[in-house]
Fold this sequence. Notes:
It contains one helix and no strands. By secondary structure, it is mostly helical.
Amino acid sequence: xxxxxxxxxxxxxxxxxxxxxxxxxxxxxxxxxxxxxxxxxxxxxxxxxxxxxxxxxxxxxxxxxxxxxxx
Length: 71
């Protein structure tokens, strides 16, 4: 009767709760993986940018050196 129906409802609710927790856990792992990947990409981008800026700094220094040598 009512007791059995209540047990079925509680059982279904527990299964749904487990499914929700599993989904949340999978999403959390996915987000953590994305964060690691994005941090790595950021580090590579910063290194590349530093390389470009260092290259331009060297070019500027050479131009300044050539200009002062011609004076």
